[in-house]
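Give me the 3D structure for WAT1-related protein isoform X1.
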Amino acid sequence: MNRSLFTRIVRYLSANCPYFQEGCDAVGKAGISALVKCTFAIRQLAYDAVPDSLDEYLQIGEKTSRDCLMHFCNGVIELYGEEYLRRPTQTDVEKLYAFHEKRHGFSGMIGSIDCTKWLWAKCPQAYRVQFSRGSNNDVNVLRQSPVLNDLKVEKSPKVPFVANGVTYKWGYYLTDGIYPEWAVLMKSISKPGSTDVKRIRYKQAHEAARKDMERAFGVLKKKWAIAISGKYYPEEKHRENDPVRSAQDRL
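Predicted structure for WAT1-related protein isoform X1 (251 residues):
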């Protein structure tokens, strides 16, 4: 995270979140500053630091550091949620169509579903809680994920596109062969004939587009190590009292 963005978040939290407003304790000693609290939250998110790893350096105990993470995540969601966590509009979808057609050559493409290769033993907290029953595979996640919920009930914006002279109501996501046969999921071709030039070229373009997105998510996971780690999450019986659960679930 660059410094200007980080300082902007610190200023916003200092002005709008009571938890980050510096006060005094019972003996009149100044409390922990908003800058230190936000620094510790960022270190947990970026480096997968356990809550008490910087106790001696930043003078913050385990519970306080976990509280910092929860309030920091909630504050960022409040600050940027309206812009980045809203449902896509028709204009957003049209921009995605234009970008992917120019970049990958696919008309009507929205994105890729199978793009992160999560290790389910260390999956994000929200998914691990939601999909704790049964097999935690990509298909189960897809069937309960909010990504396609609006499409299932036909509430998503209908942004038609034309391919080979045929008009389609919705765009589609690239996937691999494990996913169900849905109109909005476009799979690759597993075994094109050795002389079928068109199918071979389609398979290569399909897999190249998915690989671009896998690389992008790979960079994201490298920068924010907490996205792929669950080694210090609390056990199920303690999760109800976990102060970071609500923030992680919302993320």
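The chain has two domains: 3-84, 90-237. Let me know if you want a second pass.
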